[in-house]
Amino acid sequence: GFKCGIVGLPNVGKSTLFNALTQTAAAQAANYPFCTIEPNVGEVAVPDPRLDELARHGKSAQIIPTRLTFVDIAGLVRGASKGEGLGNQFLANIREVDAIAHVVRCFEDDDVTHVEGKIDPVADIETIETELMLADLDSLEKRVVALEKKAKGGDKDSKELLDLMMRALVLLREGKPARLVERRPEEEKAFAGLGLLSSKPVLYVCNVEEGSAATGNSASAKVAQRAKEEGERSVVISAKIESEIAVLPLDERKDYLDAVGLTEPGLDRLIREGYALLGLITYFTVGPKETRAWTITAGTKAPAAAGVIHTDFEKGFIRAETIAYADFVAHGGEAGAREAGKLRLEGKDYVVADGDVMHFRFAN
Ligand code: GDP
């Protein structure tokens, strides 16, 4: 599955947030199977209101949302790239995630020590980014030496990889993250293979005091501005509020949310943003037994999408009967959509769209 790592300096609220996520997951566990939780790994359901609509029209007995994994990666401090704190362990953990939720402290509280002495989330972001970039510089510089020899020997693949690595090195030496490296689509795979920490997509999570949960504060505004300039995403959340919501019975949440001025838990937004950050989209299967959401990467073609359900579906793929979400709902379900001519027969080159309701035909 896809993994989103939660990182940040100490005392910014990572554990509080992670615990809220896993408590929410635990509360969901009764309804949703396959919820496994390890100490620092939590799987959560991706909230999607479309599921309820589809299940209503499809008269499904059960709803099964798709899931996203969060990993709490503690131990990042200034100097991690030089082995400070949990140093290498921490960096190895980041290598294994697909995207980063970077929690920054935007709340004032004299009782909670700030490791850098003051509330300055943009400076904190730079501290962490610097550690990631230093680690990348170090690993690239080591690898480039060996590769240069191979490339000089005339190996074409080595030359191309070296070229890609040199472009990353140039950026990193300017203090810019590797995710900004300009690359051709056919280089994406090799680029991902480099495993550079600063190449992972980042979402900034601004942990604000309770009173600013709905509006954000001046510190989170600075982060939002920076994110905008860098073409990144940011969300405002109050870890404290989320930790309180997470332990409330579901039927009491609405009143609590109203009281703090929120329309939904911040965690729901965080999960959805994490999902989007990973470039993931959802397609659905709808039947009397269940309405279910399935996760694919944007751009996935029908056979590979079918393979997410079962490898046999991919191997024996014949075609996909497809109804767009809006058509399914507008015509009151599959039968109505079919009558209205909204059911499409799609072949193996069809690129699945977010919200597609699919039925796969396959041969054994
Ligand atoms: P971590 O080191 O980043 O995992 O941070 P923790 O989640 O352990 O939080 C560090 C301290 O900050 C704890 O005492 C939390 O109770 C406190 N804390 C976390 N979030 C908030 C918040 O939104 N407001 C306030 N006032 N304290 C918070």
UniProtKB/TrEMBL annotation:
Binding-site list for ATP: N11, V12, G13, K14, S15, T16
Domain named OBG-type G: residues: 2-257
TGS domain boundaries: 279-362
A GO cellular-component term linked to this record: cytoplasm
Cofactor (UniProt): Mg(2+)
Pfam families (alphabetical): MMR_HSR1, YchF-GTPase_C
Described purpose of this protein according to its UniProt entry: ATPase that binds to both the 70S ribosome and the 50S ribosomal subunit in a nucleotide-independent manner.
NCBIfam families the UniProt entry points to: redox-regulated ATPase YchF (TIGR00092)
Coiled coil: 130-157
Protein name from the UniProt record: Ribosome-binding ATPase YchF
Gene: ychF
Similarity field: Belongs to the TRAFAC class OBG-HflX-like GTPase superfamily. OBG GTPase family. YchF/OLA1 subfamily.
Keywords: ATP-binding, Coiled coil, Magnesium, Metal-binding, Nucleotide-binding
GO molecular-function term, one example from the UniProt record: ATP hydrolysis activity
Listed InterPro entries: ATPase_YchF/OLA1 (IPR004396), Beta-grasp_dom_sf (IPR012675), G_OBG (IPR031167), GTP-bd (IPR006073), P-loop_NTPase (IPR027417), TGS (IPR004095), TGS-like (IPR012676), TGS-like_dom_sf (IPR023192)
PANTHER family given in the database record: OBG GTPASE FAMILY, OBG-TYPE G DOMAIN-CONTAINING PROTEIN
